[in-house]
Write a structure and sequence with these properties.
alpha+beta; 10 strands; 4-stranded antiparallel beta sheet; 6-stranded antiparallel beta sheet; 149 residues; Mopterin_biosynth_MoaE; Molybdopterin synthase catalytic subunit; Aldehyde Oxidoreductase, domain 3; disordered C terminus
Length: 149
Protein backbone atom coordinates (compact mmCIF):
# COMPACT_ATOMS: atom_id res chain seq x y z
CA UNK A 1 0.00 0.00 0.00
CA UNK A 2 2.92 2.33 0.66
CA UNK A 3 3.79 2.25 -3.05
CA UNK A 4 0.47 3.88 -3.99
CA UNK A 5 -0.10 6.26 -1.06
CA UNK A 6 -0.27 9.90 -2.10
CA UNK A 7 -1.37 13.07 -0.26
CA UNK A 8 -3.73 13.92 -3.14
CA UNK A 9 -5.49 10.57 -2.99
CA UNK A 10 -8.85 10.25 -1.28
CA UNK A 11 -9.14 6.54 -2.03
CA UNK A 12 -6.93 3.47 -2.15
CA UNK A 13 -8.38 0.31 -3.70
CA UNK A 14 -6.79 -3.08 -3.11
CA UNK A 15 -7.68 -6.27 -4.96
CA UNK A 16 -6.33 -9.75 -4.29
CA UNK A 17 -7.27 -12.56 -6.66
CA UNK A 18 -7.01 -15.95 -4.94
CA UNK A 19 -7.10 -19.61 -5.94
CA UNK A 20 -10.52 -21.03 -5.11
CA UNK A 21 -11.08 -24.65 -4.11
CA UNK A 22 -13.20 -25.65 -7.12
CA UNK A 23 -13.72 -24.81 -10.75
CA UNK A 24 -16.58 -26.02 -12.97
CA UNK A 25 -17.51 -28.58 -10.31
CA UNK A 26 -13.99 -30.02 -10.03
CA UNK A 27 -11.93 -29.83 -6.82
CA UNK A 28 -8.84 -27.66 -7.41
CA UNK A 29 -5.54 -28.72 -5.87
CA UNK A 30 -3.48 -25.68 -6.95
CA UNK A 31 -2.65 -23.45 -9.89
CA UNK A 32 0.74 -23.25 -11.60
CA UNK A 33 1.54 -19.93 -13.29
CA UNK A 34 4.19 -19.39 -15.95
CA UNK A 35 5.05 -16.25 -17.93
CA UNK A 36 7.00 -14.85 -20.82
CA UNK A 37 8.68 -12.69 -18.20
CA UNK A 38 10.17 -9.76 -20.14
CA UNK A 39 7.09 -9.26 -22.26
CA UNK A 40 4.72 -9.74 -19.30
CA UNK A 41 6.51 -7.02 -17.32
CA UNK A 42 6.43 -4.69 -20.33
CA UNK A 43 2.71 -5.34 -20.77
CA UNK A 44 2.01 -4.74 -17.07
CA UNK A 45 3.91 -1.43 -17.23
CA UNK A 46 1.86 -0.37 -20.27
CA UNK A 47 -1.38 -1.24 -18.47
CA UNK A 48 -0.27 0.70 -15.39
CA UNK A 49 0.60 3.78 -17.48
CA UNK A 50 -2.72 3.57 -19.35
CA UNK A 51 -4.69 3.34 -16.08
CA UNK A 52 -2.85 6.35 -14.59
CA UNK A 53 -3.55 8.44 -17.70
CA UNK A 54 -7.15 7.32 -18.20
CA UNK A 55 -8.29 7.55 -14.56
CA UNK A 56 -5.96 10.30 -13.23
CA UNK A 57 -4.53 7.89 -10.67
CA UNK A 58 -1.98 9.01 -8.10
CA UNK A 59 -0.36 5.56 -7.90
CA UNK A 60 -0.71 1.98 -9.11
CA UNK A 61 0.96 -1.35 -8.36
CA UNK A 62 0.31 -4.57 -10.29
CA UNK A 63 1.82 -7.83 -9.06
CA UNK A 64 1.27 -11.29 -10.53
CA UNK A 65 2.65 -14.31 -8.75
CA UNK A 66 4.27 -17.11 -10.74
CA UNK A 67 4.90 -20.73 -9.84
CA UNK A 68 2.65 -22.73 -7.51
CA UNK A 69 -0.34 -20.95 -5.97
CA UNK A 70 -2.23 -23.23 -3.54
CA UNK A 71 -5.93 -22.86 -2.75
CA UNK A 72 -6.62 -19.73 -0.71
CA UNK A 73 -3.43 -17.91 -1.69
CA UNK A 74 -3.13 -14.79 -3.84
CA UNK A 75 -2.09 -14.92 -7.48
CA UNK A 76 -2.64 -11.28 -8.47
CA UNK A 77 -2.55 -8.10 -6.41
CA UNK A 78 -3.68 -4.69 -7.61
CA UNK A 79 -3.34 -1.53 -5.55
CA UNK A 80 -4.15 1.95 -6.76
CA UNK A 81 -4.87 5.39 -5.43
CA UNK A 82 -7.05 8.14 -6.82
CA UNK A 83 -8.46 11.47 -5.67
CA UNK A 84 -11.97 9.93 -5.69
CA UNK A 85 -13.33 6.45 -4.87
CA UNK A 86 -15.47 6.05 -8.01
CA UNK A 87 -12.46 6.39 -10.31
CA UNK A 88 -10.45 4.09 -8.05
CA UNK A 89 -13.08 1.32 -8.19
CA UNK A 90 -13.44 1.63 -11.98
CA UNK A 91 -9.68 1.68 -12.54
CA UNK A 92 -9.13 -1.35 -10.30
CA UNK A 93 -11.63 -3.48 -12.17
CA UNK A 94 -10.38 -2.28 -15.54
CA UNK A 95 -6.74 -2.96 -14.59
CA UNK A 96 -7.66 -6.52 -13.58
CA UNK A 97 -9.53 -7.19 -16.82
CA UNK A 98 -6.65 -5.73 -18.87
CA UNK A 99 -4.12 -7.90 -17.02
CA UNK A 100 -6.19 -11.04 -17.57
CA UNK A 101 -6.68 -10.22 -21.26
CA UNK A 102 -3.19 -9.02 -22.18
CA UNK A 103 -0.41 -10.07 -19.80
CA UNK A 104 1.63 -13.01 -21.09
CA UNK A 105 0.84 -15.36 -18.18
CA UNK A 106 -0.44 -18.93 -18.47
CA UNK A 107 -1.84 -21.17 -15.78
CA UNK A 108 -1.89 -24.90 -15.31
CA UNK A 109 -4.99 -25.97 -13.45
CA UNK A 110 -4.21 -28.87 -11.13
CA UNK A 111 -7.32 -30.79 -10.10
CA UNK A 112 -7.52 -33.47 -7.40
CA UNK A 113 -6.99 -36.90 -8.97
CA UNK A 114 -6.53 -35.60 -12.55
CA UNK A 115 -3.73 -34.52 -14.83
CA UNK A 116 -3.28 -30.74 -15.01
CA UNK A 117 -4.27 -28.59 -18.01
CA UNK A 118 -2.47 -25.47 -19.28
CA UNK A 119 -4.80 -22.57 -20.05
CA UNK A 120 -4.55 -18.94 -21.02
CA UNK A 121 -4.99 -16.80 -17.90
CA UNK A 122 -8.52 -15.74 -18.79
CA UNK A 123 -11.98 -16.17 -17.32
CA UNK A 124 -14.59 -18.28 -19.02
CA UNK A 125 -16.15 -21.69 -18.71
CA UNK A 126 -12.72 -23.35 -18.67
CA UNK A 127 -10.43 -20.66 -20.09
CA UNK A 128 -8.60 -21.14 -23.36
CA UNK A 129 -6.63 -24.39 -23.46
CA UNK A 130 -2.95 -24.04 -24.37
CA UNK A 131 -0.99 -26.97 -25.76
CA UNK A 132 2.42 -27.94 -24.37
CA UNK A 133 3.96 -27.16 -27.79
CA UNK A 134 2.69 -23.57 -27.61
CA UNK A 135 4.60 -23.14 -24.34
CA UNK A 136 7.87 -24.71 -25.53
CA UNK A 137 10.67 -22.44 -26.70
CA UNK A 138 9.36 -19.28 -25.04
CA UNK A 139 11.37 -17.15 -22.62
CA UNK A 140 9.27 -18.41 -19.69
CA UNK A 141 9.95 -17.93 -16.03
CA UNK A 142 8.37 -20.23 -13.46
CA UNK A 143 8.31 -19.33 -9.78
CA UNK A 144 9.30 -15.68 -10.19
CA UNK A 145 7.34 -12.60 -9.27
CA UNK A 146 6.44 -9.81 -11.68
CA UNK A 147 5.39 -6.30 -10.81
CA UNK A 148 4.73 -2.94 -12.36
CA UNK A 149 4.68 0.20 -10.25
Amino acid sequence: MDKVKHPGAGAIVLFAGTTRDNFAGKPVKELQYSAYNKLALRTMMAIAKDMVAKHSLKGIALIHRLGTVPVGEESILIALSSPHRQAAWRAGEEALEECKAKVEVWKREEFEGEEGVWRANRDGIMGQKISESELKGQDRVDGARGSAV
